[in-house]
Amino acid sequence: MHAGPSGSQLFLAARTGGEEFSVLFPDTSLDAAIEHGESLRSAIQERALPHATSPTASSVTVSIGVASCHPSALDDPKALMQAADQALYRAKESGRNRVKAGTAGRHESTMTPLD
Length: 115
Hints:
This protein is an alpha+beta fold. About 30% of the residues lie in helices and about 20% in strands. The strands form two sheets. It has a three-stranded antiparallel sheet with strand order 1-2-3, with no helix packed on it. The protein is globular, with a radius of gyration of 14 Å.
């Protein structure tokens, strides 16, 4: 666990697949998690790191799936990871470089870049 950007919130970041990472924010609402995701997506886009072979953009982008488990039926860690993974794939399928969120299909929110 690491202190968050404000120094007060703890979070855990880990690689969970070849190109996939998970960030866990305890005691965080879905809306706050979406804001964290959009902040990360925006920060990466602002870096404008070249990516000549990307089919999406000339610079590195990130697609983010977000899920929340309080209070919800996602009290099982595996179900929470599956919900976030499904949201990630919806972000990729809808054009990449965006944040998608959902909690077991009950609620979906999206943020796309303002270009």
